[in-house]
């Protein structure tokens, strides 16, 4: 199995610096201008990267400090619920069941726990180039059999999520199918109602047309008969009015209003009589028209009732599907976390490799300081030709992702930095020339 030692200090392009320069930049960063250390050690934190079938790598912490926990839900038995609904023959009971079931309710929650599995986002950490640093590798607790079981557990958990999501999808399809059948019955019932009413309305319309034609014939005969009789006196009245107008013209009388009122009264009597005849022939038409309106009103009322039932079925379906979608979204979020456990690692092509993350651990006073991989900010010339040199605490910055190892470091270590005194002092000279306020020898960094 290939082992890759990541760099402790890289340039701004994430390329490794020479070994001696990584050592000296690290000690200069930790100690700053004035701090003294009682011991310092280069530590290697071993990670195991194993390629997954779907691509990417599962990353395991061989020390056992890290683990991954994912919260999940215990779902209802949707198969049992659907089976219960399908066994119910009464349609109203089916709808009552559908309305009463809490479709988005879960039985409880659980935690899927994977020891050794890392779920952290390492950002640029796993892009760092390889270096041969003199590291003390932390003890490994992970065994090959653990890896096999863990990968199997992760894949099993993912497959369980996929099965549950499939079950929710099938449940949605079944609910839609059951409601579609009930809606189909409602639609057919509406069609029958429309057909029955349309037949009655058509028959009533035909009856109305016949009655109208009959009454037209009758009213024509009566109006003609009565008109010829009633208007027979009108010529005599017109003669009377004409004579009165002549008398008025001659000045014999002052007004013709009395004879005109006779005509007006006579015409009103005629009009009343004719209206009586007309109204008599409207009675049957009015009755039939009322019956026709009542049929149309009853038809619309019955259709509206069916439409309201169909609307409620649509609303019920939408409510159930929405609740099931909420459960499904939660399941997909859990599946997404499981499927994103494998990470892309640009420095690997192997199916399996050990990646060593370097750390510098130093004791300063009563504090234990842990330095993760760094990015060197480059040579900085001091002000005024190097008289004022730059503070070494600003010499580098953390590579994103390394802080998780700092926060979880609690191992006992021994000093091994003194073994590389010559290399470090060579680097101190170089850093000083680049404008950093560093000490001249490694001994100056240690407490006496």
Structure description:
- Residues 202-229, 267-333 form a coiled coil.
- Keywords: Coiled coil.
- The chain is an alpha/beta fold.
- Among the domains are: 1-64 and 118-129 and 351-447, no CATH class; 185-317, no CATH class.
- It is 54% helix and 15% strand.
- It has helices at 19-31, 78-87, 91-100, 144-230, 234-250, 257-339, 383-386, 403-407, 421-433, and strands at 2-5, 9-10, 37-51, 57-61, 67-74, 108-115, 136-137, 352-364, 367-371, 374-376, 396-398.
- Strands 1, 3, 4, 7, 8 and 9 form a six-stranded mixed beta sheet that branches. Strands 2-10-11 form a three-stranded mixed beta sheet.
- Helix 2 packs parallel to helix 4, helix 4 packs antiparallel against helix 6 and helix 5 packs across helix 6.
- The protein is elongated, with a radius of gyration of 50 Å.
- The mean pLDDT is 92.
Low-confidence stretches: none
Largest sheet: 6 strands, mixed
Helix fraction bin: 40-55%
Multimeric state? single chain
Order of helices and strands: EEHEEEHHEEHHHEEEHEHH
**Mean pLDDT, as a whole number?**
92
Rg, Cα atoms, Å? 50 Å
Put simply, the count of helices is 9
**What is the straight-line distance between the termini?**
43 Å
Name the structural class.
Answer: alpha/beta
């Amino acid at each position: 199995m290939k082992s890759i030692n990541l760099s402790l200090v890289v340039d701004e392009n994430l390329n490794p610096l020479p070994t001696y320069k990584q050592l000296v930049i690290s000690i200069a960063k930790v100690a700053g201008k004035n701090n003294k250390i009682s011991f310092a050690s280069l530590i290697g934190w071993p990670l195991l990267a194993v390629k997954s079938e779907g691509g990417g790598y599962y990353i395991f912490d061989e020390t056992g400090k890290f683990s991954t926990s994912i919260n999940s839900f215990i779902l209802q038995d949707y198969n049992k619920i659907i089976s219960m609904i399908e066994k119910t023959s009464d349609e109203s009971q089916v709808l009552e069941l559908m309305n009463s079931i809490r479709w988005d309710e879960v039985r409880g929650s659980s935690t899927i726990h994977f020891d050794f599995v890392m779920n952290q986002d390492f950002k640029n950490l796993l892009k760092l180039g390889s270096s041969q640093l003199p590291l003390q590798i932390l003890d490994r607790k992970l065994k090959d059999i653990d890896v096999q079981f863990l990968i199997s557990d992760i894949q099993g958990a993912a497959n369980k999520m996929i099965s549950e999501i499939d079950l929710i999808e099938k449940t949605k399809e079944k609910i839609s199918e059951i409601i579609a059948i009930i809606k189909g019955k409602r639609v057919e019932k509406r069609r029958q109602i429309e057909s029955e009413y349309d037949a009655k309305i058509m028959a009533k319309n035909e009856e109305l047309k016949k009655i109208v034609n009959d009454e037209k014939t009758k009213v024509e005969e009566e109006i003609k008969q009565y008109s010829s009789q009633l208007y027979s006196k009108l010529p005599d009245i017109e003669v009377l009015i004409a004579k009165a107008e002549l008398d008025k013209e001659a000045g014999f009388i002052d007004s013709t209003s009395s004879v005109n009122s006779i005509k007006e009264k006579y015409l009103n009597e005629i009009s009343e009589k004719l209206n009586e005849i007309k109204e008599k022939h409207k009675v049957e038409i009015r009755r039939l028209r009322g019956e026709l309106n009542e049929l149309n009103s009853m038809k619309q009322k019955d259709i509206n009732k069916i439409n309201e039932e169909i609307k409620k079925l649509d609303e019920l379906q939408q409510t159930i599907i929405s609740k099931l979608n909420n459960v499904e979204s939660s399941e997909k979020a859990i599946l997404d976390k499981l499927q994103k456990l494998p990470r892309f690692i640009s420095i690997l092509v192997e199916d399996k490799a050990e990646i060593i993350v370097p750390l510098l651990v130093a004791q300063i006073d009563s504090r234990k300081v842990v330095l993760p991989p760094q990015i060197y900010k480059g040579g900085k010339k001091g002000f005024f030709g190097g008289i004022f040199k730059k503070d070494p605490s600003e010499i580098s910055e953390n590579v994103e992702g390394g802080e998780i190892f700092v926060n979880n470091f609690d191992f006992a270590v021994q000093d091994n930095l003194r073994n590389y005194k010559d290399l470090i002092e060579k680097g101190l000279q170089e850093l000083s020339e680049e404008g950093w306020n560093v000490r001249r020898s490694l001994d100056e960094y240690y407490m006496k």
